[in-house]
Design brief:
With about 400 residues, the protein is of the alpha+beta class. About 20% of the residues lie in helices and about 30% in strands. The relative contact order is 0.14.
C-alpha cells in the first residue's frame, strides 16, 4: 500500500507537494530512510526500518513520523506522529527544494509515564524485537544503548535531504536498488547498490558509529572476477585469502604503474570448467559474466570458510558469480578509515554477500522489495551528485 497511491488532484497544487519521495534524515552517523507519500486524505512521512536482526530476508518495517492534511492547501495542518499518544501539533519547514525540516511542538507527547527506562524498553522491543537481557554480547549492549541515547534526543525534530534511487541499465549485473544487510553487532542496515561503469558501489543509507550513513561501505571491481575453489578447499580460509590477496597485489602493481585494469585480461584465478571470464566494454562489465553464469546451470556450491562469522547462517549455499572488492572499515567515530580486500558474492537477483577478509566476517544482503514513487533521479549526473553530497556530510 505504502508509496503506491495515485496522488489526487489537490496534491498537484499543495504547498507540500515537493516533499513527496525519498529522504535521508540527518541523525548523526545513523541516518535513515523516509518515504513521503500521498495516503488517502493525507501526505504521510513513513520511516522505513530494517527487519529485526538477523532476519535479513524479512520485509521492512515502517512507522509514521508526520502527516499533513491534504485538503488544506494554504495553511495545512501538520501533525507529529512520533511517540505513543497519537497525533499532535507539529511543523514542517521547506528549507530548499531538496531539503526540509520537521519540528514537534508538543514533545511531552513523546514521554512515557515510566520515564526513560520505559521509553528505552519500548524502543528496544520495536528496534530489536527483544529485551536487553536477551542480548548477551556486552559490546552489542553498549552500541544499542548509545544509539537510543543519541537518536531519542532529536524528538522528531529533524532535517531531511532528498535521495534518489539509482538509475538502472540493461547491462547491469543485477537491478540496482536498496538492500538490507547484516553488520555484526550493529545489526541490520540499509545499503544502496549502484553501478558505475566497471564498478559497483554500496552506499549506506543507514549507518553506525564506525561507518556512518552516506559512506561507501563496499566497492566491487566487475572486471576482476574471482573463481572460488571447490567447497572442500573453500572451507580453508587461508586458501581463499591467498586468492584474494593475489588479486589485491595485482591491483596495487597496476596502480603503481599508473595503469587501469585491462578490459580483456585473464583473471587471477582461471575457471577450471572453461575459458577465463572476460569483461566486455561494449556489452557492459557485468552483462557477459552474468550471461556466462546463466548458461552454466545452477552456479556453484558456496560455503563460508571456517572461522568466518556471520550474523545469519541462513545464507544461500549456491552462488552465481564472485568478484574482487574492497570494504570500508574504521574505528569508533569513523577514525582511521581504510579500504580492505574482500569478495563480493552474487547469489541471485535479490541477494548478494560480501566477505570481509580482514574482519573474517560475512555480510548478507537482501533486496528491499517495497515500491517507491517520486524517487527516480532526474539524470545520472543528479544521482552522482546526490551520492557525493550525502558522503560529504560524514567525511
Amino acid at each position: 500500500m505504502l508509496g503506491n497511491c495515485v496522488p489526487p488532484l489537490p496534491t498537484v497544487l499543495h504547498r507540500y507537494r515537493h516533499i513527496l519521495g525519498l529522504w535521508q534524515p540527518d541523525i548523526g552517523p545513523y541516518g535513515g530512510l523516509l518515504n513521503v507519500v500521498v495516503d488517502g486524505l493525507f501526505i504521510i512521512g513513513w520511516m522505513y526500518l530494517p527487519p529485526h536482526d538477523p532476519h535479513v530476508g524479512d520485509p521492512m518495517r515502517f512507522k509514521p513520523l508526520f502527516r499533513i492534511h491534504l485538503m488544506e492547501r494554504k495553511s495545512a495542518t501538520v501533525e507529529c506522529m512520533y511517540g505513543h499518544k497519537g497525533p499532535h501539533n507539529g511543523h514542517i519547514q521547506i528549507v530548499k527544494r531538496d531539503e526540509f525540516s520537521t519540528k514537534c511542538n508538543q514533545t511531552d507527547h513523546h514521554r512515557m509515564s515510566g520515564g526513560r527506562q520505559e521509553e528505552f524498553r519500548t524502543w528496544l522491543r520495536e528496534e530489536w524485537g527483544r529485551t536487553l537481557e536477551d542480548i548477551f554480547h556486552e559490546h552489542m549492549q553498549e552500541l544499542i544503548l548509545m544509539k537510543f541515547i543519541y537518536t531519542s534526543q532529536y524528538d522528531n525534530c529533524l532535517t531531511y535531504r532528498r535521495i534518489y534511487l539509482p538509475p538502472s541499465h540493461p547491462d547491469d549485473l543485477i537491478k540496482p536498488g536498496l538492500f538490507k544487510g547484516t553488520y555484526g553487532s550493529h545489526g541490520l542496515e540499509i545499503v544502496m547498490l549502484s553501478f558505475h561503469g566497471s564498478r559497483a558501489r554500496g552506499t549506506k543509507i543507514t549507518g553506525d558509529p564506525n561507518i556512518p550513513a552516506g559512506q561507501q561501505t563496499v566497492e566491487i571491481d566487475l572486471q576482476r572476477r574471482i573463481q572460488l575453489p571447490d567447497v572442500e578447499n573453500l572451507r580453508n580460509f587461508n586458501e581463499l585469502s591467498r586468492i584474494v590477496l593475489e588479486v589485491r597485489e595485482q591491483v596495487r602493481q597496476e596502480q603503481e604503474a599508473g595503469e587501469g585494469p585491462a578490459p580483456h585480461r585473464e583473471p587471477a584465478v582461471k575457471d577450471p570448467e572453461g575459458p577465463p571470464a572476460k569483461a566486455s566494454k561494449e556489452a557492459g562489465p557485468g552483462a557477459e559474466a552474468a550471461e556466462q553464469s546463466s548458461t552454466s546451470g545452477q552456479g556453484q556450491p558456496f560455503v563460508l570458510p571456517a572461522g568466518v562469522s556471520s550474523r545469519n547462517e541462513d545464507y544461500p549455499r549456491t552462488c552465481r558469480l564472485c568478484f574482487y572488492g574492497t570494504g570500508l572499515i574504521a574505528g569508533h567515530g569513523f577514525t582511521s578509515p581504510e579500504r580492505t580486500p574482500g569478495v563480493f558474492v552474487l547469489f541471485d537477483e535479490d541477494r548478494f554477500g560480501f566477505l570481509w577478509l580482514e574482519l573474517k566476517s560475512f555480510s548478507l544482503y537482501s533486496r528491499v522489495q517495497a515500491t517507491f514513487q517520486n524517487a527516480d533521479a532526474p539524470s545520472p549526473q543528479a544521482f552522482d551528485e546526490m551520492l557525493r553530497n550525502i558522503q560529504s556530510l560524514t567525511s
